Amino acid sequence: MAFLADALSRVKPSATIAVSQKARELKAKGRDVIGLGAGEPDFDTPDNIKDAAIEAIKRGETKYTPVSGIPELRKAIAAKFKRENGLDYTPEQTIVGTGGKQILFNAFMATMNAGDEVVIPTPYWVSYPEMVSLCGGTPVFVATTQENKFKLTAEDLDKAITPKTKWFIFNSPSNPSGAAYTHDELKALTDVLMKHPHVWILTDDMYEHLTYGDFKFATPAEVEPGLYERTLTMNGVSKAYAMTGWRIGYAAGPLALIKAMDMIQGQQTSGACSIAQWAAVEALNGTQDFIPENKKIFEGRRDLVVSMLNQAVGIECPSPEGAFYVYPSCKGLIGKTAPSGKVIETDEDFVSELLESEGVAVVHGSAFGLGPNFRISYATSEDLLEEACKRIQRFCAACR
Ligand SMILES: Cc1ncc(COP(=O)(O)O)c(C=O)c1O
């Protein structure tokens, strides 16, 4: 009898965590490494949010909370969806989880049966297919192209849907490409989804507040109210409020689905940390001044990175609308010989040679299902980004 579950054979470890780990190990050995692998803001959580958590501790908010979240936070979430997305949800239609990650997991766990398919555009956030597989479903990948700025076309979405499709996962702005869909681009997709009433939509709006220039964020149930009854709108405080470690994510959707997710959570974590929930109440209800300030900083970094990468031989880097990632192509380097003498055959070779040669840690595109590309997280200082891009330019110039 095997000790480990068969389900484990269906998943692989996170490539993004692996890259961060490798960078840490090299640093520990004394190498000068710039890590551009991590997907978290480098800013500290704003003081008003920290203070709310401290106050919650002092008030003794240290007990189990209702499984789906404290009423104050569920009310704040419903108000956020109304205020920012024009979506009407009652607090009972919302649920709080231990990060957006757990919300997604609960949604799949609550709905997935063997043979169910989940349509996932590539490049995708690494956890989507693994979560689907762990819950017994089948990921169905639909490729986007760099020419179409990594955005799914209506035609390709339509072709990917079968009678077995249970969910379509939508993520805009995207991790890893940074691509964000305008209202009209999204409408083209929601028109397709209206033709397939058996398909549910899981929209991961985690990077909603990180869009640049005059780009206007849109979410499926807002663009097409006809999809409201089969859409789970997921979001969280990790990226917008620099709260990755607090582990608070949330979602809103049809009551029956929320109740099913509550049931799973009740047998799993009993709900998110009480103190972090009070911090999230302040994040959603308190001042939002922090958001535009950070956006400005991220936008400057994006422009710097895009411009410097496009000056590297063999690299092509589109300028994405949002998140804090760029997803350049390294196609021009494939077939060349790195300074170590190794021939670069894949994007994985490219990133590993770059790390060896110049100490810059990035994640290969094939980990996100589309290459030859690589992902850079620009959630770090301009000085470090400039130095990292100089090293990438030097590495590319040295490849023969
Ligand atoms: C697209 C996307 N969704 C969800 C998450 C999960 O966020 P958290 O669990 O920190 O709320 C992440 C984190 O990297 C992400 O990039």
Task: Quickly list its features.
400 residues, alpha/beta, seven-stranded mixed β-sheet, three-stranded antiparallel β-sheet, 13 helices, 12% strand, binds pyridoxal-5'-phosphate, PyrdxlP-dep_Trfase_major, PyrdxlP-dep_Trfase, transaminase activity, EC 2.6.1.-
Can you put this structure into words, describing what you see?
With 400 residues, this protein is of the alpha/beta class. It is built from 13 helices and 12 strands. The strands form 3 sheets. It has a 7-stranded mixed sheet, sandwiched between helices. Helix 7 links the parallel strand 5 and strand 6 (200-204). Helix 3 runs parallel beside helix 10 (274-285), helix 6 (154-160) runs parallel beside helix 7 (183-194) and helix 11 (290-309) runs parallel beside helix 13 (382-398). It starts with 14 loop residues before the first helix and ends with a helix. The mean pLDDT is 96. Bound molecules: pyridoxal-5'-phosphate. Pyridoxal-5'-phosphate binds next to helix 4. Belongs to the class-I pyridoxal-phosphate-dependent aminotransferase family. It comes from Xaviernesmea rhizosphaerae. One of its GO terms (molecular function) is transaminase activity. Its cofactor is pyridoxal 5'-phosphate. It holds the Pfam family Aminotran_1_2.
